[in-house]
TrEMBL record:
Keywords: Amino-acid biosynthesis, Aminotransferase, Cytoplasm, Pyridoxal phosphate, Pyridoxine biosynthesis, Serine biosynthesis, Transferase. This is phosphoserine transaminase. It holds the Pfam family Aminotran_5. Residues 144-334 form the Aminotransferase class V domain. It catalyses: O-phospho-L-serine + 2-oxoglutarate = 3-phosphooxypyruvate + L-glutamate; 4-(phosphooxy)-L-threonine + 2-oxoglutarate = (R)-3-hydroxy-2-oxo-4-phosphooxybutanoate + L-glutamate. It comes from Arthrobacter flavus. It is an enzyme of class 2 (transferase). GO terms for molecular function: O-phospho-L-serine:2-oxoglutarate aminotransferase activity. Its EC number is 2.6.1.52. Its cofactor is pyridoxal 5'-phosphate.
Amino acid sequence: MSISPDQLIPAGLLPADGRFGAGPSKVRDEQMEALAQAGRTLLGTSHRQPPVRNLVGSVREGLTRLFNAPAGYEVVLGVGGSTAFWDVASFGLVQDKAQHLSFGEFGAKFASATNKAPFLQASSVITSAPGTRPSPAAEAGVDVYAWPQNETSTGVAAPVHRIDGAAPDALVLIDATSAAGGLDVDVSASDVYYFAPQKNFASDGGLWLGLFSPAALERAARIAATDRWIPDFLSLQTAIDNSLLNQTYNTPSLATLVTLNAQVEWLNQSGGLEFAAARTAESAGRVYQWAEASDVATPFVSRTEDRSNVITTIDFEDSVDAALLAKVLRANGIVDVEPYRKLGRNQLRIATFVSIEPDDISALLACIDFVIGRG
Protein backbone atom coordinates (compact mmCIF):
# COMPACT_ATOMS: atom_id res chain seq x y z
CA MET A 1 0.00 0.00 0.00
CA SER A 2 1.59 3.26 -1.12
CA ILE A 3 1.38 6.47 0.90
CA SER A 4 2.49 9.66 -0.77
CA PRO A 5 4.76 11.70 1.55
CA ASP A 6 3.35 14.99 0.23
CA GLN A 7 -0.29 13.94 0.27
CA LEU A 8 -2.81 16.67 1.07
CA ILE A 9 -5.88 15.82 3.12
CA PRO A 10 -9.05 17.70 2.12
CA ALA A 11 -9.85 20.48 4.59
CA GLY A 12 -13.33 19.08 5.10
CA LEU A 13 -11.89 15.90 6.60
CA LEU A 14 -9.48 17.52 9.04
CA PRO A 15 -10.28 17.71 12.76
CA ALA A 16 -11.00 21.11 14.25
CA ASP A 17 -7.94 20.62 16.46
CA GLY A 18 -5.10 18.38 15.36
CA ARG A 19 -3.40 17.78 18.72
CA PHE A 20 -3.56 14.13 19.79
CA GLY A 21 -0.31 13.83 21.73
CA ALA A 22 0.19 11.61 24.77
CA GLY A 23 1.63 14.57 26.67
CA PRO A 24 2.08 17.42 26.67
CA SER A 25 -1.52 17.38 25.56
CA LYS A 26 -4.02 19.64 23.90
CA VAL A 27 -4.67 22.81 25.92
CA ARG A 28 -8.19 24.22 25.64
CA ASP A 29 -8.70 27.79 24.48
CA GLU A 30 -10.45 28.60 27.75
CA GLN A 31 -7.30 27.72 29.66
CA MET A 32 -5.29 30.14 27.55
CA GLU A 33 -7.88 32.82 28.23
CA ALA A 34 -7.48 32.18 31.96
CA LEU A 35 -3.72 32.52 31.55
CA ALA A 36 -4.10 35.83 29.72
CA GLN A 37 -6.38 37.12 32.48
CA ALA A 38 -3.78 36.17 35.07
CA GLY A 39 -1.10 38.13 33.26
CA ARG A 40 -1.14 41.27 35.40
CA THR A 41 -2.53 39.81 38.62
CA LEU A 42 -0.51 36.62 39.16
CA LEU A 43 2.33 36.13 36.71
CA GLY A 44 5.50 37.76 37.93
CA THR A 45 4.35 37.94 41.55
CA SER A 46 5.54 36.16 44.70
CA HIS A 47 4.37 32.59 45.24
CA ARG A 48 4.38 33.25 49.00
CA GLN A 49 1.69 35.93 48.86
CA PRO A 50 -2.12 35.51 49.05
CA PRO A 51 -2.97 35.73 45.31
CA VAL A 52 -0.80 32.74 44.39
CA ARG A 53 -1.52 30.87 47.60
CA ASN A 54 -5.24 31.29 46.90
CA LEU A 55 -4.62 29.79 43.46
CA VAL A 56 -2.84 26.80 44.97
CA GLY A 57 -5.67 26.47 47.46
CA SER A 58 -8.18 26.46 44.61
CA VAL A 59 -6.26 23.66 42.87
CA ARG A 60 -6.12 21.62 46.07
CA GLU A 61 -9.82 22.11 46.83
CA GLY A 62 -10.81 21.41 43.23
CA LEU A 63 -8.87 18.14 43.11
CA THR A 64 -10.30 17.05 46.46
CA ARG A 65 -13.77 17.59 45.01
CA LEU A 66 -12.99 16.01 41.62
CA PHE A 67 -11.72 12.79 43.17
CA ASN A 68 -14.20 12.79 46.06
CA ALA A 69 -11.26 12.34 48.39
CA PRO A 70 -12.08 10.68 51.72
CA ALA A 71 -11.75 12.61 54.96
CA GLY A 72 -8.13 12.90 56.03
CA TYR A 73 -6.69 12.75 52.51
CA GLU A 74 -4.58 15.76 51.57
CA VAL A 75 -3.60 17.11 48.15
CA VAL A 76 0.18 17.58 48.21
CA LEU A 77 2.22 19.19 45.44
CA GLY A 78 5.82 19.87 44.60
CA VAL A 79 8.07 20.97 41.79
CA GLY A 80 9.69 18.48 39.41
CA GLY A 81 7.00 16.31 37.82
CA SER A 82 6.39 12.58 38.22
CA THR A 83 10.04 11.75 37.53
CA ALA A 84 11.05 13.82 40.56
CA PHE A 85 8.29 12.21 42.61
CA TRP A 86 9.82 8.76 42.12
CA ASP A 87 12.90 10.03 43.94
CA VAL A 88 10.75 11.83 46.51
CA ALA A 89 8.89 8.59 47.22
CA SER A 90 12.10 6.55 47.33
CA PHE A 91 13.44 8.85 50.03
CA GLY A 92 10.24 9.61 51.88
CA LEU A 93 7.68 6.79 51.54
CA VAL A 94 9.47 3.45 51.13
CA GLN A 95 10.54 2.22 54.55
CA ASP A 96 12.49 -0.88 53.51
CA LYS A 97 11.26 -2.49 50.30
CA ALA A 98 8.96 -1.75 47.38
CA GLN A 99 7.16 -3.99 44.94
CA HIS A 100 6.60 -2.61 41.43
CA LEU A 101 4.53 -3.68 38.47
CA SER A 102 6.58 -3.06 35.33
CA PHE A 103 4.62 -3.36 32.09
CA GLY A 104 5.95 -0.39 30.19
CA GLU A 105 8.42 2.45 30.40
CA PHE A 106 7.11 4.32 33.42
CA GLY A 107 6.55 1.53 35.90
CA ALA A 108 10.08 0.38 35.10
CA LYS A 109 11.51 3.84 35.83
CA PHE A 110 10.04 3.98 39.34
CA ALA A 111 11.38 0.47 40.00
CA SER A 112 14.80 1.65 38.88
CA ALA A 113 14.63 4.58 41.31
CA THR A 114 13.96 2.45 44.38
CA ASN A 115 16.48 -0.17 43.27
CA LYS A 116 19.23 2.44 43.16
CA ALA A 117 18.50 3.75 46.67
CA PRO A 118 21.38 2.42 48.83
CA PHE A 119 19.28 2.54 52.02
CA LEU A 120 16.53 0.26 50.63
CA GLN A 121 16.40 -3.46 49.99
CA ALA A 122 16.34 -4.63 46.38
CA SER A 123 12.91 -4.01 44.94
CA SER A 124 10.56 -6.77 43.92
CA VAL A 125 9.63 -6.21 40.26
CA ILE A 126 6.81 -8.12 38.56
CA THR A 127 6.91 -7.74 34.80
CA SER A 128 4.84 -8.61 31.77
CA ALA A 129 5.24 -8.07 28.05
CA PRO A 130 4.28 -4.70 26.53
CA GLY A 131 0.57 -4.69 25.76
CA THR A 132 -0.26 -6.79 28.83
CA ARG A 133 -0.23 -6.19 32.58
CA PRO A 134 0.77 -8.23 35.63
CA SER A 135 -0.93 -8.21 39.03
CA PRO A 136 0.52 -7.30 42.43
CA ALA A 137 0.97 -10.05 44.98
CA ALA A 138 1.37 -9.86 48.74
CA GLU A 139 4.99 -10.34 49.71
CA ALA A 140 6.72 -10.48 53.07
CA GLY A 141 8.82 -7.41 53.82
CA VAL A 142 7.19 -5.17 51.21
CA ASP A 143 5.88 -1.89 52.63
CA VAL A 144 5.05 -0.12 49.33
CA TYR A 145 3.21 -1.55 46.33
CA ALA A 146 3.45 0.63 43.22
CA TRP A 147 2.16 0.57 39.65
CA PRO A 148 0.76 2.87 36.95
CA GLN A 149 -2.99 3.07 36.56
CA ASN A 150 -2.31 3.80 32.91
CA GLU A 151 0.90 2.86 31.13
CA THR A 152 1.38 5.79 28.76
CA SER A 153 3.91 3.99 26.60
CA THR A 154 1.68 1.04 25.69
CA GLY A 155 -1.95 2.02 26.24
CA VAL A 156 -2.56 -0.56 28.99
CA ALA A 157 -4.75 0.36 31.97
CA ALA A 158 -4.56 -1.40 35.35
CA PRO A 159 -7.12 -1.39 38.18
CA VAL A 160 -6.48 0.47 41.42
CA HIS A 161 -7.05 -1.74 44.46
CA ARG A 162 -5.71 -2.95 47.77
CA ILE A 163 -3.63 -6.14 47.89
CA ASP A 164 -5.11 -9.11 49.72
CA GLY A 165 -2.69 -10.44 52.30
CA ALA A 166 -0.40 -7.42 52.29
CA ALA A 167 0.93 -6.11 55.60
CA PRO A 168 -1.67 -3.87 57.30
CA ASP A 169 0.63 -0.84 57.13
CA ALA A 170 1.74 -1.37 53.51
CA LEU A 171 1.05 1.57 51.21
CA VAL A 172 -0.35 1.51 47.67
CA LEU A 173 1.21 4.14 45.37
CA ILE A 174 -0.49 4.70 42.02
CA ASP A 175 1.18 6.56 39.17
CA ALA A 176 -1.83 8.29 37.63
CA THR A 177 0.07 10.72 35.42
CA SER A 178 -1.86 9.90 32.24
CA ALA A 179 -4.94 8.52 34.04
CA ALA A 180 -5.89 11.22 36.54
CA GLY A 181 -8.81 13.32 35.39
CA GLY A 182 -9.65 10.90 32.57
CA LEU A 183 -10.20 7.48 34.12
CA ASP A 184 -12.55 6.60 36.95
CA VAL A 185 -10.92 5.74 40.27
CA ASP A 186 -11.70 5.22 43.94
CA VAL A 187 -8.76 7.01 45.53
CA SER A 188 -9.53 5.34 48.88
CA ALA A 189 -8.09 2.17 47.31
CA SER A 190 -4.68 3.88 47.24
CA ASP A 191 -2.50 5.76 49.70
CA VAL A 192 -0.87 8.06 47.17
CA TYR A 193 -2.59 8.77 43.87
CA TYR A 194 -0.02 10.96 42.14
CA PHE A 195 0.28 12.62 38.76
CA ALA A 196 1.72 15.47 36.72
CA PRO A 197 -0.63 17.97 35.02
CA GLN A 198 0.37 17.72 31.35
CA LYS A 199 -2.05 14.95 30.33
CA ASN A 200 -5.79 15.09 31.11
CA PHE A 201 -5.26 18.30 33.05
CA ALA A 202 -3.91 19.91 29.86
CA SER A 203 -1.32 22.01 31.62
CA ASP A 204 2.49 21.99 31.47
CA GLY A 205 4.87 19.58 33.15
CA GLY A 206 7.30 20.29 35.96
CA LEU A 207 4.84 19.82 38.83
CA TRP A 208 3.77 16.73 40.77
CA LEU A 209 0.55 16.40 42.72
CA GLY A 210 -0.85 13.60 44.81
CA LEU A 211 -3.77 12.67 47.02
CA PHE A 212 -2.20 11.30 50.23
CA SER A 213 -4.00 9.10 52.74
CA PRO A 214 -3.53 9.58 56.49
CA ALA A 215 -1.34 6.45 56.46
CA ALA A 216 0.91 7.95 53.78
CA LEU A 217 1.16 11.22 55.67
CA GLU A 218 2.10 9.33 58.83
CA ARG A 219 4.73 7.27 56.96
CA ALA A 220 6.29 10.42 55.52
CA ALA A 221 6.49 12.03 58.96
CA ARG A 222 7.97 8.90 60.53
CA ILE A 223 10.70 8.55 57.90
CA ALA A 224 11.48 12.27 58.07
CA ALA A 225 12.11 11.87 61.81
CA THR A 226 14.81 9.22 61.26
CA ASP A 227 18.47 9.83 60.43
CA ARG A 228 17.91 9.02 56.72
CA TRP A 229 19.56 11.75 54.67
CA ILE A 230 17.02 13.39 52.36
CA PRO A 231 17.93 16.29 50.04
CA ASP A 232 15.82 19.36 50.79
CA PHE A 233 14.40 19.50 47.26
CA LEU A 234 13.28 15.85 47.57
CA SER A 235 11.90 16.09 51.10
CA LEU A 236 8.34 14.84 51.10
CA GLN A 237 7.67 16.23 54.57
CA THR A 238 8.76 19.67 53.38
CA ALA A 239 6.36 19.36 50.44
CA ILE A 240 3.54 18.33 52.78
CA ASP A 241 4.20 21.16 55.20
CA ASN A 242 4.23 23.73 52.39
CA SER A 243 1.16 22.28 50.69
CA LEU A 244 -0.87 22.65 53.86
CA LEU A 245 0.00 26.35 53.62
CA ASN A 246 -1.09 26.40 49.94
CA GLN A 247 2.42 26.90 48.61
CA THR A 248 5.45 24.99 47.36
CA TYR A 249 8.93 24.77 48.84
CA ASN A 250 10.49 26.44 45.81
CA THR A 251 9.11 28.63 43.07
CA PRO A 252 6.57 26.87 40.82
CA SER A 253 5.49 27.79 37.31
CA LEU A 254 2.49 30.03 37.87
CA ALA A 255 1.35 29.50 34.28
CA THR A 256 1.13 25.78 35.00
CA LEU A 257 -0.97 26.39 38.09
CA VAL A 258 -3.30 28.79 36.26
CA THR A 259 -4.03 26.42 33.37
CA LEU A 260 -4.32 23.45 35.76
CA ASN A 261 -6.82 25.30 37.91
CA ALA A 262 -8.88 26.28 34.87
CA GLN A 263 -9.02 22.63 33.76
CA VAL A 264 -10.02 21.36 37.20
CA GLU A 265 -12.79 23.97 37.38
CA TRP A 266 -14.06 22.94 33.93
CA LEU A 267 -14.10 19.26 34.87
CA ASN A 268 -15.97 19.89 38.11
CA GLN A 269 -18.48 22.18 36.40
CA SER A 270 -19.01 19.62 33.63
CA GLY A 271 -19.91 16.74 35.91
CA GLY A 272 -16.67 15.73 37.54
CA LEU A 273 -14.92 12.42 37.11
CA GLU A 274 -18.08 10.74 35.83
CA PHE A 275 -18.18 13.22 32.94
CA ALA A 276 -14.47 12.83 32.24
CA ALA A 277 -14.47 9.03 32.25
CA ALA A 278 -17.52 8.86 29.98
CA ARG A 279 -15.98 11.32 27.50
CA THR A 280 -12.66 9.50 27.23
CA ALA A 281 -14.48 6.16 26.94
CA GLU A 282 -16.48 7.57 24.02
CA SER A 283 -13.35 8.75 22.22
CA ALA A 284 -11.36 5.58 22.86
CA GLY A 285 -14.32 3.43 21.86
CA ARG A 286 -14.37 5.10 18.45
CA VAL A 287 -10.68 4.26 17.93
CA TYR A 288 -11.00 0.63 19.01
CA GLN A 289 -14.17 0.05 17.00
CA TRP A 290 -12.48 1.53 13.93
CA ALA A 291 -9.40 -0.66 14.37
CA GLU A 292 -11.43 -3.83 14.95
CA ALA A 293 -13.38 -3.17 11.74
CA SER A 294 -10.24 -2.42 9.72
CA ASP A 295 -8.45 -4.94 7.55
CA VAL A 296 -5.06 -3.26 8.09
CA ALA A 297 -5.21 -2.14 11.75
CA THR A 298 -5.73 -3.87 15.10
CA PRO A 299 -5.66 -2.71 18.74
CA PHE A 300 -2.19 -3.39 20.16
CA VAL A 301 -3.67 -4.39 23.55
CA SER A 302 -5.46 -7.64 22.85
CA ARG A 303 -7.49 -7.99 26.07
CA THR A 304 -10.44 -5.60 25.96
CA GLU A 305 -10.44 -5.15 29.73
CA ASP A 306 -6.80 -3.98 29.65
CA ARG A 307 -7.28 -1.30 26.99
CA SER A 308 -6.84 2.27 28.10
CA ASN A 309 -9.49 4.91 27.49
CA VAL A 310 -6.96 7.74 27.48
CA ILE A 311 -4.09 6.30 25.40
CA THR A 312 -4.93 4.10 22.42
CA THR A 313 -2.25 2.13 20.57
CA ILE A 314 -3.04 0.73 17.14
CA ASP A 315 -0.86 -1.70 15.18
CA PHE A 316 -0.80 -1.71 11.39
CA GLU A 317 -0.01 -4.47 8.95
CA ASP A 318 3.31 -4.24 7.14
CA SER A 319 1.51 -2.97 4.04
CA VAL A 320 1.00 0.33 5.89
CA ASP A 321 4.07 2.31 6.90
CA ALA A 322 2.84 3.84 10.17
CA ALA A 323 5.86 6.14 10.46
CA LEU A 324 5.17 7.58 7.00
CA LEU A 325 1.47 7.80 7.83
CA ALA A 326 2.28 9.84 10.93
CA LYS A 327 4.56 12.06 8.85
CA VAL A 328 1.78 12.78 6.34
CA LEU A 329 -0.68 13.50 9.15
CA ARG A 330 1.81 15.89 10.75
CA ALA A 331 2.28 17.74 7.46
CA ASN A 332 -1.48 18.25 7.42
CA GLY A 333 -1.63 19.63 10.97
CA ILE A 334 -2.44 16.38 12.82
CA VAL A 335 0.41 15.95 15.27
CA ASP A 336 1.97 13.66 17.87
CA VAL A 337 0.41 10.34 16.93
CA GLU A 338 3.77 8.59 16.61
CA PRO A 339 4.28 5.41 18.70
CA TYR A 340 6.38 5.32 21.84
CA ARG A 341 9.93 5.27 20.53
CA LYS A 342 11.26 2.33 22.57
CA LEU A 343 8.47 -0.03 21.52
CA GLY A 344 9.68 0.06 17.94
CA ARG A 345 6.34 -1.07 16.55
CA ASN A 346 4.56 -0.26 13.30
CA GLN A 347 1.79 1.57 15.11
CA LEU A 348 0.18 4.88 16.01
CA ARG A 349 -0.43 6.09 19.56
CA ILE A 350 -3.50 8.32 19.79
CA ALA A 351 -4.35 10.14 23.00
CA THR A 352 -8.03 10.41 23.87
CA PHE A 353 -7.65 12.74 26.84
CA VAL A 354 -10.70 14.54 28.17
CA SER A 355 -9.91 17.83 26.39
CA ILE A 356 -10.01 16.14 22.99
CA GLU A 357 -13.37 16.32 21.26
CA PRO A 358 -14.73 12.87 20.36
CA ASP A 359 -15.72 14.21 16.94
CA ASP A 360 -12.10 15.20 16.34
CA ILE A 361 -11.17 11.57 17.01
CA SER A 362 -13.63 10.51 14.31
CA ALA A 363 -12.17 13.09 11.95
CA LEU A 364 -8.66 11.78 12.63
CA LEU A 365 -9.76 8.25 11.78
CA ALA A 366 -11.34 9.49 8.54
CA CYS A 367 -8.07 11.18 7.67
CA ILE A 368 -6.14 7.96 8.29
CA ASP A 369 -8.53 6.08 6.00
CA PHE A 370 -8.09 8.75 3.36
CA VAL A 371 -4.28 8.64 3.49
CA ILE A 372 -4.08 4.86 3.27
CA GLY A 373 -6.62 4.82 0.46
CA ARG A 374 -9.57 3.46 2.38
CA GLY A 375 -11.69 6.61 2.64
